Amino acid sequence: MTKNPPPQTPATAGAVASPDRYGAEVAAAILQQGGNAVDAAVATAFALAVTYPEAGNIGGGGFMTLWFNNKAYFLDYREIAPAKAHREMYLNQEGEVINELSLIGHLASGVPGTVMGLWQAHQQFGTKSWAELIAPAIRLAEDGYLVPDKTYLYDRNVFGRFAGKTNFAEYFAALQPGNIFKQPQLAATLKRIAAKGPTDFYEGETAQLILAEMTRGQGLITAEDLRNYQAVWRNPLITNYRDMQLITVAPPSSGGIALNQFLALKEHNREHFDGLKHNSAQYVHLIAEIAKRVFADRADYLGDPDFTAVPQQQLLAPDYLARRAQEINPKAISATAMIKPGLESEQTTHFSIVDKAGNAVSNTYTLNLDYGSGVVVSGAGFLLNNEMDDFSAKAGVPNAFGVIGNDANAIAPGKRMLSSMTPTILLKAGKLELVIGTPGGSTIFSSIFQVINNLYDFNMTAQQAVAAPRFHHQLLPQDQIRIEPYHALTTEVQQHLQQMGYQIHMPDWNLGDIQLIKMEAGQAIPASDPRGRGVALRVD
Predict the structure, then answer these.
(1) What is the pLDDT of residue 298?
(2) Active-site residue among 114, 348, 422, 443?
(3) Which domains does the chain possess?
């Protein structure tokens, strides 16, 4: 195994780009032992539940986009709202949103989907035994792993955030760089899941521990909620992009529609992009103009398709996209108040895997913010998500990522909350071309969009494309361009944007953690984002 191999190096058994070295090494071992991409994905996901606790999980949920035996699949294992959830559950008597109620503590959690999702993927495509795939995670939990330096990528005050509110410190106080971190309760939980599958998590001993935790913290998840949870195989969103096919997620993710809109609106405005330098002020401005329209549509139209009529075909119709593209002002900032939905009337983690047969898994799963709700299931050792914040607690009020939503994404029992996760696969001439995804909340699809531009417009290598500086705009906050400490836009570009009327904002966290695999001359070239602690491995 070699890290970030040169393109000329043959890849005979596949490749992996994982957010940490443990996940990468587990995937590589499974591929070397003859497992396929789904086998490696299941093993990696469970390993990351141990070694990447800020986002890797069994107490959260996610999406998996697959290219398997020359056919596209999309598995939705997103969390759902408990049956006792209701539209106004985070509002006070005056109808205002109660600070942090949807973010910290037991009321913040939706019904977890990860275990069921991984089980469904394994049942459909796995070749190795379920227990064999969970064994590496059990070893990492029992024997411990070396806590890396980049443990707190997004929130360096995580202990302060949960202090006196949850039992987080009781379980994770030793999660300090340089320590060997062991999780015996989590190891026991994983052993039960390995032996009994999802039955343990949704109806067995682990389920009972979840319910006891809900009782302690007056949470809403019930035995019936757990017993009724199902992952859903949905039709992937398949569209054309230049001479390639784009395979990505459909609702309840907003990411697939949004990524398609980004790409299409840019194609319609190609004359404005011709000759522009990468990340020049004019380039950033044009992307911000596109982003305004994409996020306006997201806010009004997108939600769980089982509850909301999502106008997917209309949002992606060529005539609609052409009309939206004409609204873009290449010379000045479009007034935010004038940007309307166009139809009439974070943190997360990602890994990409390719096997020797050309099968691919692009998997993004999450607890939502770093370490989720901060609630650890006592006796079971795993964190619960705070995905309920991804609903619109109140129409027009921003969530933790600053994005707004309306009725389409209102809280309802059994409903899946809207997501930005965008695990994506590109094909060229019917063959695998690119596997890509990232964490980052509302910045996910804008980050993927920029990396695709880097690859196919600026001819960067895979590693150059993930390492290049990124930026973000999302309609609100008004006229704000978000940049990153990892690699900011140049001072000259920032000054030019400010002269145009933009506000420059740099939070203390970076934009995403891209993990991709690009096929070149039939060989899998993995690349892992230097912003995080990821590792890219080619497997011989």
Answers:
(1) 87
(2) 348
(3) 2-229+348-409 (no CATH), 234-346+436-522 (1.10.246.130)
